Amino acid sequence: MLAYLIRRLFAAAVMLVVIIMVVFGIFFLVPKWAGVDIATSFVGKQADPAAVQAVREKLGLSDPIFIQVWEFFKGIFVGRTYSGGGDVTHCAAPCFGYSFRSEQAVWPVLTDRFPVTLGLALGAAVLWLVLGVAAGVLSALKRGSLWDRGAMVVALSGVSLPIYFTGLLALAIFSYGLKWIDGQYVPLSESVGGWFGGMILPWITLAFLYAAMYARITRATMLEILGEDYIRTARAKGLTEQVVIGKHAMRSTMTPILTMLGMDLGALIGGAILTETTFSLPGLGQAVLNAIKNQDLPIILGVTLITSVAVLIANLVVDVLYAVIDPRVRLS
Amino acid sequence: MTTQRTSGRRKQALAAAAVVAGLLTTAACGGGDSDGSKNGAAGFDAANNKVAQASLAKKGGTLKFGGAQDADSWDTTRGYYGFAWNFMRYYSRQLVTNKTSAGADGAKVTPDLATGLAKITDGGKTYTYTLRDGVTWEDGKPITSKDVKYGIERVWAQDVLSGGPTYLKDFLDPDGKYQGPYKDKSADHLGLKAIDTPDDKTIVFHLPKANADFEEVLALTSASPVRQDKDTKAKYTLHPFSSGPYKFASYSPGKDLTLVRNDAWKQSSDPVRKAYPDKITVKFFSNANDLDQRLINGDIDLDLNQTGMSPQGRTVALKQHKGNLDNPVSGYIRYAVFPQSVKPFDNVHCRNAVIYGADHVSLQTARGGPVAGGDIGTNMLPPSVPGAEGQKYDPFQIAGANKNGNAAKAKEELKACGKADGFSTTIAVRNNKPVEVATAQSLQASLAKVGIKAEIDQYDGSQTPGIIGSPSNVKKKGYGIIIMGWGPDFPTVQGFGLPLWDSKYISQSGNNNYALIKDKKIDGLFDQYVNTLDAGKKTEIATEINHKVMEGGYYLPFTFEKFINWRSDRLANVYTTDAYSGMYDFVNLGLKSSK
Description:
Chain A: InterPro entries: BPD_transp_1_N (IPR045621), MetI-like (IPR000515), MetI-like_sf (IPR035906). The complex is a heterodimer of chains A (332) and B (595). Chain A has 332 residues and is mainly alpha-helical.
């Protein structure tokens, strides 16, 4: 198990380095090939030549690309000092770059916004997992029934309706219309009730989309598994239906569910852009959207890396959990 | 970075938006008190160029702003967004500032830190000011003339503090001899020769050449004092040190901003600011529709950005809360411009053919109609600029007989241009401005009727300075018609038109004189304008410049832009001002209740 973990961690680290290099290349190299001076995107409306030159100096944009990548890596571990135009800016480790738009180091921006996105992703995941899996199992067990058909119609709606529709609808009904929920984000540190009130609609909206997909996958997997020989054997041995479903069928059903959960959760932690935009949640998704609008490359790069790390970690956890859930999986 | 598993299919989005708009309309509460009442909304247009409910303003309470966009910078030297300049008056003072009056009077300059307007000598090249007693920073230390000089010197440090207006640099040091305070070798870093500070109360400006708008430029927030020991250079935007009635309590870019009272500020030292609320908050929204609904629901008092409500929110508000709305002229003109380097637009008759061939009502509709888009533009001087005549000056009968286009006249002009059968050209339009794309399509359709075949090229809007700001690129791409908009940095013909119409401002990159106007008469009028100190004569020259520009047929104006802006029931002492292009004047907004 330990050797397996070390191997996976090593692979994840290599993957991360490759991702950083690719992302760095996309943001800093490709524009250069296209003849665009990215220093101009760091200055405002008045692209004063002195300002452009200072940014070029500060970011070392005239250096060869491998030196720029090296400086970036070095910054993560030992920090980095940007100097140019008579100004010196120190970015403490871990330095993931510096936004010359907001004059902030990227890392504190990410850590400030990360709890919002994490809260959104985890809260929604609990909801969609419980509701989606329960609905899927019940549908499989009551195949062809009114419940099954009703649940699958709801699931189909959930998959079909985009967040910007269901989110606005939820706000229109529960927040603007009925005024049951304020719907404005309040940090957890300020008020637990306020935080819950601000998150409940985003959770439900996001969970509605994902629960629908999980219900459909659970149903399909469960139906397939219920036809397996070992289920028939379990029933033939006289085990109760609760044990057959709960202990034997569910374990196998959970394997693909877990795979999906790892990917989805990892990806969402990188920022649920549509949900955060619809509900004006100050998370990573909102940060990256603003950064795209403002061409704030360091923030985009930072969020991309956070997403990559989250997906890698989630996959690692899922791989380990496979062995716990399904004894047929061997770690080799 | 990732998104949810949803695709952004356009049709789906439009259908969804339509359904949700309907639901929002149903969900929105309230009745239409368009006439206004004492404690409720003041009525439609009640604050447009006049003061609404001034007597109801009480001291205290929290004034709540909401915005879809954060400032480009809260550093007084670096900010260039109009709403940011407006908001900066809460925490910054200048020698002179714009009057806190409604409409055109608000565009006039009044003393702020200074005891009076400038004593102008030396044929308009020397401006002398004396500072008031009792003016202080947020730590109680007095504001000195050296602080004002240092704050102005920061404009020269473009390598560190980029982004803001550079008029002061252009007016005081056109040759760029000074390197800015961060590279200044003198012991006090106050080496700019054009400004003298003989004592802590006196400041003298020496202009190499007279400029009649110098005091207007000193009223911009980029002329605010900054104290050297509090100058955090590029990071100053995160916490500017206050000289005004409020100071920064907290700021998280793109999330929120809170100002609280600056206890060191004394009302007796400030003839401009009333400082009604105790606290001012700004919350940033990523969903403009959500912001509008929060305004309608009363969670927020007004929109920080002041660029008008979204179509969805506007529809609900106009229907059910008209009394909370104002419909001011924004100061912007939306237009098409014809680069003379692209044939056949070197010929005035071909340019005139486009002006006559266009359906101006259709263009106005594409801009949002008469209420949300604005009045049909008939000339190139915004109504808020002294010397403007509004729709009274309409040399092409754009809002009159030819408002739906005059095909016969257009064909006549085509014949005079030697293109009786019409011609082909390209319309360049920013791809990130849907309304501009709609106007391009409208223009394309109406020109087709007179034989002018126009293709539309949607270019990357974020690269505007390098694409349409490069005359060689414009010529290479054959952009005969460029769709654009422009508003004044300060409300004078110089603040609006100099970069657009003066031949000296034609540049190879970041050019704004897209038509490449090289008219000695216009250049001469601008030279005459900057040397004229008499306000009446300045106005006359502004009018004449506008006439010359229109006679050249360089522009097809679409609209004198208007917005629909929201003011909550809680607000008092509300008025729009020409100083900030028809926005509400933030600095003296009050609340009806201190709760």
